[in-house]
Amino acid sequence: MSDAKRPDKAEHTDKTVRVFTTHSSEETILLGRELAKLLVPPKVLVLRGDLGAGKTTLVKGIAAALGAAEPEEVTSPTFTLIHEYAGRSVEHDSLGNTVLLYHIDLYRIEGQRQLDTLGMEDLMTPQSLILIEWGEKFPSITERSDGEIVLETLPGDERRITLRLGS
Ligand SMILES: Nc1ncnc2c1ncn2[C@@H]1O[C@H](COP(=O)(O)OP(=O)(O)O)[C@@H](O)[C@H]1O
Ligand SMILES: [Mg+2]
Fold first, then answer.
1. Angle between helices 55-65 and 25-35 (to 10 degrees)
2. What is the number of the ligand closest to the CA of 49?
3. Which helix (H) or strand (E) covers residue 114, if one does?
4. What is the number of the ligand 1 atom nearest to the C-alpha of 159?
5. Other C-beta atoms within 10 Å of 13: how many?
6. What is the per-residue pLDDT across 114-149, written as a single tens digit (0 to 9) for each?
7. By C-alpha distance, which of 89, 108, 98 is closest to 38?
8. Which ligand is nearest to the CA of 50?
9. Ligand 1 center from residue 27 Cα (angstroms)
10. What is the pLDDT of residues 66-96, one digit of tens each?
11. What is this structure's pTM?
12. Residue 101 in contact with residue 87, Cβ under 8 Å?
């Protein structure tokens, strides 16, 4: 797990940018556990990366850190579109506050009209942490997002995972 917690690079301007490398799904779950500390509600984040990059795997770690679900309970919302998990904040200043984790997959959604039928507006509460796979397909989402987590597939099981927070 060595490198999973160690940023390769950190920039501190008005944006938070952190880059990590993982070498297995287990390391990506551990990284999700760490990143959960930075994801203070309310937030909307796009999870960007190819099929199989590890977006859902990362959510397993985030959900686990929040006590919202065990990794094996977090499955891809490819067909169900939205999964909701209730957990508790792990961030120091808001320790124990309720977090509503919404894991959304828009792979199969075509066009803004179809997106509107999901009623995502209703999910945006002060407690919400909304993680959206394939959210970059929709300008209406990227414009309103608080950042993104980009997962790049490198040779073998290596993944480069970049967190960008802030605007
Ligand atoms: N470093 C890694 N991080 C995450 N997943 C990995 C890694 N190496 C291999 N994998 C495998 O890649 C797949 C990622 O699947 P998944 O998380 O569902 O991707 P996505 O949601 O991006 O389509 C899983 O089969 C997982 O075991
Ligand atoms: Mg997925």
1. 50
2. 1
3. helix 111-116
4. 1
5. 7
6. 999 999 999 999 999 999 999 999 999 999 999 999
7. 89
8. 1
9. 10
10. 999 999 999 999 989 999 999 999 887 788 8
11. 0.91
12. yes
Residue nearest to atom 9 of ligand 1 (CA): 157
State in Å: Cα 106 to ligand 1 middle.
Answer: 18
How far apart, in whole angstroms, are the C-alpha atoms of residue 9 and residue 26?
22
Q: Are 104 and 130 in contact (CB under 8 A)?
A: yes
3-state secondary structure 15-77: CEEEEEEECCHHHHHHHHHHHHHHCCCCEEEEEECCCCCCHHHHHHHHHHHCCCCCHHHCCCC
Question: For the chain, which domains are there?
Answer: 19-165 (3.40.50.300)
DSSP H or E run through 127:
none
Ligand 2 centroid distance, CA of 113 (Å):
22
